[in-house]
Amino acid sequence: MKARKRKTSSRGKYDRSLTAAARQSDQRTKLLDAATSVIAAVGFGETTVEAIVERAGMSRRTYYEHFTDVRDVLAQIYERASSISLAMVTSSARAHTAPLEALRAGLAAYFLAVSTYPEVARVMFQEYRQGGRDFEARYQRDSARYAELLLELLGAVHTAGAITKKPTEATVFAIAKGIEGLAVRAIAKQEQHALPALLPELVELTLAPFR
Prior knowledge:
70% of the residues lie in helices and 0% in strands.
């Protein structure tokens, strides 16, 4: 009678060809990606460390070498995503010298990020704020940074003579919040793929108050 082979778990195993630093970075990235998928699927309130490590194929011990709890990983997901997205929008806009093209490019990059990475967008716009007051405060500060960038871009459009009224901070903030709200609505309705097609209309709506 043949003895049954004992199944072994792949959890906690790692590529021994990597340096310690590279291995740590690889583990962190995989855990962040896994946590993003889990939180986007079930919500922050229902997410557990066990679900994250199961998705990542890692051990709880490895998880706690990088994060203290689920709230900590949520903060790190947001930190990574918000830094990348703001840099992408800013660099896309500033790659153009013509003010109107810069405005279009910035808005296009914003919607492209949301439509391309819906799980990340869901965590950023919906789940992150469930982390508590300090998370909500950070979210609002970052939201204001997008409004500041939009004000800068519209100011350049005004200087170039493409709009007659000088953009005001309050009006631009309201427009920025409207753009954000459109993204949140699209994510909630799982229609984020349609966002890039709205760009021409959105550009006109953004310029309209200052014509």
